[in-house]
Amino acid sequence: MTTPPPSAPTTTPPSSAPATKTPPAKPTSKPIEKAIVQKRKIRTGPAGSHLTTGTDGVALTFDDGPDPDYTPVLLRMLAKEKIKATFCVVGTQARRHPDLVRAIAKAGHTLCNHTWNHDLKLGKKPVAKIKSDLERTNAAIRAAVPDAKIPYFRAPGGHFNQPVVVTAKKMGMTSIYWKVDPRDWEHPKGESPGQHRKKIIKIVQRHTRPGSIVLSHDYAQPDTIAAYRTLLPWLRQRFRLVAL
Q1: Which H helix or E strand runs over 89?
Q2: What is the DSSP track for 97-131?
Q3: Rounded to an integer, what distance in angstroms lies between the CA atom of residue 16 and that of residue 63?
Q4: Residue among 128, 127, 49 nearest 88 (CA)
Q5: Has 99 been annotated as catalytic?
């Protein structure tokens, strides 16, 4: 089973280097689940895609799946911590694993269209082909979950432009970028699995703030799943975690 490589922006997303150093958020004694939702201005990225949630809630997003090895593990971890997330699903993977699409929806997570086969050059194609790609992906998701709501779209690699954003909007989908990117898909030569996990944890803990959209991958990234064993309880203690 192969799919194109995970999302890999050609430039470092704006979230990776905040203007000033701010200490990581500290736990609060007030239950996050019962906190009053605070609205915030949505920050926008490429072609008007959303960088933030528009509230004080933090959204965890997982791309390129579903993966038969790692998505079920992640779903169990999220259920244990009572956290809802957003899954950006690739159409070919949805077609291969409809049972996992059903499991994602049944657990109350949000579904996001991530194109049919992770085409990094989709935005350069004619609008008719962009629309066809997104429709095909939605159809694969709804073949598994006929009444599935698919309110969001994410361009592979974060390669948003006006044609893809406008096309997605006409189909009822909001385009989402991200504010925090641990680059979990990137494995430098000589980096051990343990080092990779620590890097993911460090970046997410250092840069996540109220309103952040956090990018990670559930497809073919075992170290990411391992990192979230630490991150999920850490984030839950400090933020109100929301599905978009």
Answers
A1: strand 86-89
A2: -HHHHHHHHHTTPEEEE--SS--TTGGGS-HHHHH
A3: 18
A4: 49
A5: no
**pLDDT tens per residue, range 210-240:** 999 999 999 999 999 999 999 999 999 999 9
Sign of CA dihedral 49, 3, 10, 178: positive
What is the percent of the chain where pLDDT is above 90? 84
Q: Is 218 helix (H, G, I), strand (E, B) or coil?
A: coil
Asked whether residue 42 carries a pLDDT value surpassing 70, the answer given is: yes
Q: How far apart are CA 165 and CA 95, in angstroms?
A: 24
Q: What is the DSSP string of 187-215?
A: --TT--HHHHHHHHHHHHHHH--TTBEEE
What is d(CA 47, CA 106) in angstroms, rounded to the nearest whole number?
A: 32
Q: Which of 50, 97, 114, 217 is catalytic?
A: 217
Annotated catalytic residue within 63, 64, 133, 184: 63
Question: What pTM was estimated for this model as a whole?
Answer: 0.86
Question: Is residue 184 annotated as a catalytic residue, yes or no?
Answer: no
Task: Check: CB of residue 53 under 8 Å from CB of residue 213.
Answer: yes
pLDDT in tens, 66-98: 999 999 999 999 999 999 999 999 999 999 999
Q: 4 or 149, which is more confident?
A: 149
